[in-house]
Design the sequence.
């Protein structure tokens, strides 16, 4: 018998259907709530509210589980490539060799950006944050490929846009780095695979020899796979929300990039390193910063710690921590920030404040250590997150578009402002109608 939930409001009892997912998650379907009761629900931050059904990624925050289309992310990190993972997330199944070869070859075909787009870079100040440049450039792709801005693209058009975004995002990011250091742009090479091509565009230059380091390629492979999707996080929900108005995929992704930029989301990997640098500069006084993070009226937080969903270890953080140690040992790098991060984790995980609130290291806590070891500059860290998250955003946008239940996103609210009142002519206003400290 289908499970039901009963809602009693006053003398009324409303029966609401319960939905059960394939991993036994439960939801009360409140689609009919407002029409039946005139009541809505209120859930700032949507911590208790599902926005959709999805078959792309499963996260169990209590058990620290993360699956891409049912496959544990640790197995993907161990065995897959970022291009193969992108195929799985977007198309739902692991590709055959023939499908993978075709998918991979199309990346080569779409790696370049239009020559005119380089003028955008020349017009940007070299101090512009790469996330702002990335969002602007991705949105501008709609101007260069207007034929691909159909609100409901065909499968063929969607496949082309997906590959363009996945492939060109590397080029745009590498060019924004080269612009920031005043070095010449290096074009993508047809003979290089996804990550080596990115590293080559980032670090090779006519003025110096650059050899691609396979340990760095492998570390980035794992990082990009681990960042590839994470169900309804802030930036992915943004992509779905913008796409629900039938905005094209370029515009929806550009919005997702801006959401990811925030320090509470993808910008956290940059903030973690800045925090560790501050602690190091302050004589490695870790306890001082742990105490600061616990103070109620302090705005300081341990960046890279805590998560809306994970109330156990973020499975990605454990893998990235191991990768960081492996890469630094292989490269013979002694990074004091890694030692501080490990010590900080040890102290915090024994501290009741963090234990009671179930605050563990998240995906951003150790990733910056790897980016530093490779020589990627600090302000490019959120951009690395965006490159990784691109397949997830694309997969969710398409799932949203194909879902017959999708409607334009339009949450309700509870109004708490002034009740009805009349306009007061200016000559009759004796004082500011809203005596707030910031009124003019
Ligand atoms: C990502 O959603 C996703 O899946 C995101 C992501 C993905 O893959 O897309 O996993 C990627 O964005 C990871 C998160 C990166 N952000 C950070 O590392 C920033 C630091 N973390 C926090 O700001 C916070 O933990 C959040 C934003 C991640 C989660 O915030 P919530 O769920 O809204 O939790 P909250 O702010 O309500 O905190 C609950 C309590 C509060 O204390 P009390 O009011 O109960 O006393 O925990 C405290 C918070 O003050 N707290 C922290 C803390 N995080 C939460 N205290 C100190 N340091 C922290 N980092």
Sequence:
């Amino acid at each position: 018998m289908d499970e039901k939930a009963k809602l009693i409001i006053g003398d009324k009892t409303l029966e609401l259907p319960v939905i059960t997912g394939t991993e036994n998650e439960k939801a009360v379907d409140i689609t009919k709530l407002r029409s039946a009761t005139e009541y809505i629900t209120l859930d700032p931050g949507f911590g208790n509210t599902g926005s959709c059904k999805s078959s792309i990624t499963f996260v169990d925050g209590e058990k620290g589980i993360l699956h891409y289309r049912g496959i544990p992310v640790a197995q993907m990190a161990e065995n897959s490539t970022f291009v193969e993972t992108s195929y799985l997330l977007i198309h739902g199944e692991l590709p055959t060799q023939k499908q993978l070869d075709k998918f991979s070859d199309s990346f080569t075909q779409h790696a370049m950006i239009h020559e005119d787009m380089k003028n955008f870079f020349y017009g940007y100040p070299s101090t512009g944050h790469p996330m702002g440049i990335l969002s602007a450039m991705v949105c501008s792709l709609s101007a260069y490929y207007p034929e691909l801005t159909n609100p409901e693209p065909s499968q063929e058009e969607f496949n082309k846009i997906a590959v363009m975004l996945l492939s060109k995002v590397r080029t745009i990011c590498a060019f924004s780095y080269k612009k920031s250091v005043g070095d010449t742009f290096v074009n993508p090479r047809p003979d290089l695979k996804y990550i080596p091509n990115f590293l080559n565009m980032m670090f090779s230059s006519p003025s110096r020899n650059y050899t691609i380091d396979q340990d760095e390629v492998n570390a980035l492979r794992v990082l990009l796979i681990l960042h590839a999707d994470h169900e309804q996080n802030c930036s992915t929900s943004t992509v779905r929300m913008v796409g629900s108005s039938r905005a094209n995929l370029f515009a929806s992704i550009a919005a997702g990039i801006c959401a990811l930029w925030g320090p509470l989301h993808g910008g956290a990997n940059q903030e973690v390193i800045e925090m560790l640098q501050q602690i190091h500069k302050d004589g490695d006084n870790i306890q001082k910063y742990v105490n600061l993070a616990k103070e109620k009226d302090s705005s300081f937080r341990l960046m890279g710690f805590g998560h809306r969903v994970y109330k156990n270890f973020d499975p990605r953080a454990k893998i990235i921590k191991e990768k960081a140690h492996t890469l630094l040992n292989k490269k013979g790098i002694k990074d004091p920030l890694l030692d501080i991060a490990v010590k900080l984790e040890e102290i915090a995980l024994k501290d009741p404040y963090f234990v009671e609130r179930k605050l563990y290291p998240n995906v951003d806590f150790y990733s910056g250590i790897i980016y530093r070891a490779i020589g990627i500059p600090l302000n490019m860290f959120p951009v690395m997150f965006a490159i990784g998250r691109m397949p997830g955003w694309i997969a969710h946008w398409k799932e949203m578009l194909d879902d017959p239940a999708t409607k334009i996103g339009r949450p309700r609210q509870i109004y708490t402002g002034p009740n009805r009142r009349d306009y007061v002519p200016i000559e009759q206003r004796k004082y500011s109608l809203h005596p707030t400290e910031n009124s003019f």
Summary: The mean pLDDT is 95. Strands lie at 4-9, 12-20, 26-28, 57-60, 65-68, 71-72. Residues 4-65 form a domain with the Rubrerythrin, domain 2 fold (CATH 2.20.28.60).
